[in-house]
Specification:
alpha/beta, Four Helix Bundle (Hemerythrin (Met), subunit A), Rossmann fold, 434 Repressor (Amino-terminal Domain), 3 domains, 8 strands, binds guanosine-5'-triphosphate, binds magnesium ion
């Protein structure tokens, strides 16, 4: 998701973060690059223009230029602006609390309506809701069959009627759902090749007939700006309650996701990230902005970490990092904590800045064991003050842990580099970062 855009932002901000001082000129230069990156990701040009204008007003003022870490401050301005663009707060689907709550899905052919019907049905079934899927696509041969196969695989009932117009089918389905106490009824409508008036009237009629709680446009994110125009037209015509963006797992450049809210005023509510029925996410503007800017999914990471990591311990480490007294002993403790969190790949991908560096890299879990063994072979004094490790100590540590002196050298070199990096990071802060999450905010 957003692969190329993330890479570009990473390059732009890497330089910015590093620079101690910023001038109006290099802010403008960086923003020009941000602008280009967004346009290349197929973000609507008007949206880009407004975005850059907003960021520039915020950034060229005193707040950024006079701050201690201007580069970091600028990244924050871009981040906050991106969150605003994406819609500030997550807007979730109306929960199924009536008999029945009604979701109506519409969109172009092949955008993923039927698949999404199944995903929403499964999600709600797992919440013990009684779900009815309504086959309102009577035009494409095999459409009803496709929905039935999907419904069977998750054990949900399908409502269908032969030789009947979709608006009538849906009204009948609603009566059936009321009588049989279904919590949720999901209408899978017919796809269309493009916006055509006849089918629009049909959607209007269904809407008028059943008064859905949610009218969701299912839009294929791979179609970029076409998805945005489509959402605009559908929203003007039908007053949507939200958009579901599908196929964000593909190589969509992200333009649709970033532009839709700003262009149409309609919130993105759901994101579909794969063909499996469990590949469904609620759209969170702040998390999405962080991902796009390569800050990783801190909240997701912290949620994962909280299960495994001793937060008091983490707070202690944070204190040490600030005081720049992080030692090999602390490093060893950190390794133990990380080991508790599960496979390294899945954790590292969520760490800010690491996703990109990790692309295609094989994680060497054995390497971690080697590092552990070397640290175990050190004396307490050596762990606390690695500067004292001279030639003969290296030899002892190497033979004690079954390693070569080169490996000991490598460990020390990496540790000192890390210490230096933490020193720089001690000064930076990211808004909304829960206390104790700091050690995971590495930027390796
Ligand atoms: N990779 C990926 N594929 C998806 C996603 N959502 C749907 N698909 C695939 O897209 C194709 C079309 O999906 P459908 O759900 O049949 O689309 P539809 O809108 O119901 O299509 P019509 O009924 O013909 O209008 C199928 O092959 C799905 O497996 C997604 O989020 N990611
Ligand atoms: Mg379909």
């Amino acid at each position: 998701m957003f692969g190329e855009l993330i890479d570009k932002f990473d390059d732009i901000f890497r330089t910015l973060r590093g620079s101690g001082k910023l001038s109006e000129k290099n802010i403008k230069d960086s923003l020009r690059e941000v602008r280009r990156a967004l346009l290349e990701a197929d973000v609507n040009y008007k949206v880009v223009k407004d975005f850059i204008a907003h960021v520039e007003t915020e950034a060229v003022g005193e707040k950024v230029l006079k701050s201690i870490e201007p580069g970091q401050q600028l990244v924050k301005v871009v981040h906050d602006e991106l969150v605003r663009l994406l819609g500030e707060k997550a807007e979730s689907m109306t929960p199924a609390t009536k008999f029945p709550t009604i979701y109506m899905l519409c969109g172009l052919q092949g955008s993923g309506k039927t698949t999404l019907s199944g995903k929403l049905a499964l999600l709600n079934k797992r919440k013990n809701k009684k779900v009815l899927l309504v086959a309102a696509d009577i035009y494409r041969p095999a459409a009803v069959k496709q929905l039935k196969i999907l419904a069977d695989s998750i054990g949900v009932e399908v409502f269908q009627m032969e030789n009947t117009k979709p608006p009538v089918i849906c009204e009948e389905a609603k009566r059936h759902a009321e009588k049989n106490f279904f919590d949720l009824m999901i209408i899978d409508t017919a796809g269309r090749l493009h916006i055509d008036e006849e089918l629009m009237i049909e959607l209007d009629d269904i809407k008028a007939g059943v008064a859905p709680d949610e009218l969701i446009l299912v839009a294929d994110s791979m179609t970029g700006q076409d998805a945005v125009n489509l959402a605009d037209k559908f929203h003007q015509r039908l007053k949507l309650t939200g958009v579901a963006l599908t196929k964000l797992d593909g190589d969509a450049r992200g333009g649709a996701a970033i532009s839709i809210r700003a262009v149409t005023g309609c919130p993105i509510k759901l994101v579909s990230v794969g063909e499996k029925l469990s590949d469904l996410e609620v759209f969170h503007p702040d998390r999405m902005a962080s991902r796009i800017l390569g800050m990783g999914d801190i909240v997701g990471l912290v949620e994962k970490a909280q299960g495994a990591v001793d937060l008091k311990e983490a707070a202690k480490i944070e204190e040490k990092l600030k005081k720049q007294s992080f030692t090999l002993e602390d490093f060893y403790d950190q390794l133990q904590q990380i080991k508790k969190m599960g496979p390294l790949e899945s954790i590292l991908g969520m760490i800010p800045g690491v996703g990109k560096a990790l692309k295609g890299v094989q994680i060497d879990e054995k390497g971690m064991g080697r590092v552990e063994a070397m640290i175990q072979s050190m004396t307490l004094e050596e762990r606390r003050n690695p500067n004292i490790i001279d030639g003969s100590r290296k030899l002892r540590i190497a033979s004690g842990s079954g390693n070569s002196v080169q490996n000991v050298n490598l460990l020390l070199k990496q540790f000192f580099a890390m210490q230096k990096m933490f020193k720089n990071m001690g000064k930076m802060k990211i808004k909304g970062l829960p206390k104790g999450a700091f050690p995971f905010q590495m930027n390796i």
